[in-house]
């Protein structure tokens, strides 16, 4: 039995286009914010919607897919793990922290944002689709 679990599953929409960069080693990195919605009743019994924003980061082939087919408003289902990184702020000298979801699998839901339709890795005879799932391999993550 596992002694701990670090698994995140989110279904939401991007609030803005992903930010895509490359590491010095050439690995593509895509960073984006994913909004999920929560509905609750307030004290007056009225339904209220609340958005929760999640910082996400993807590497390698998954980041390339996000770069090519995802834009503002895109609906995604992501699976991954929570990770907190830290660094020293050069301006203030203070230690900074950022907690984000490291995306290990992504499913694009709805029409692709890129100009071309795409197919899954299942085979050449598959029809163009609007959902793509890719599992990240250990070699895709640069740490």
User: Which regions have little confidence, pLDDT < 50, spanning 5+ residues?
Assistant: 115-134
Q: What is the string of helix and strand elements?
A: EEEEHEEE
CATH class: Mainly Beta
Architecture (CATH level 2) name:
Beta Barrel
The quaternary organization reads as single chain
Give the total of beta strands.
7
* Total helical elements: 1
Whole-number count of domains: 1
Instruction: Note the gap between the termini.
Output: 26 Å
Structural class by SSE content: mainly beta
Which strands sit side by side, in order, in the main sheet? 1-3-4-6-5
What's the helical proportion of residues?
A: under 10%
Major sheet details: 5 strands, mixed, barrel
- Summarize model confidence as the mean pLDDT: 82
Commentary on this structure:
This protein is mainly β and 143 residues long. The chain has a single domain (8-39, 47-140), classed as Beta Barrel (OB fold (Dihydrolipoamide Acetyltransferase, E2P)). Helix content is 7%, strand content 49%. It contains 1 helix and 7 strands. The protein has one helix at 60-69; strands at residues 8-14, 19-22, 28-41, 47-59, 75-88, 95-109, 133-135. Strands 1-3-4-6-5 form a 5-stranded mixed barrel. A hairpin with a 6-residue loop joins β5 and β6. The radius of gyration is 17 Å and the shape is globular. Residues 115-134 have low confidence and may be disordered.
